[in-house]
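pasting for ref
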Amino acid sequence: MQGAHGVSYAVYSMKHDVRMQVEKKRQEEYLKSQQVLANLERRRIHSY
């Protein structure tokens, strides 16, 4: 938690606003990774 988001678990568990910021960032990173994966899959399909 500390390394990835710069927030200790104690702060994360006690502060709702911090928790929401971390979860929003996680969601954005997840969506970005899904877009990258989809682009790679498209390239792989079109390269055959």
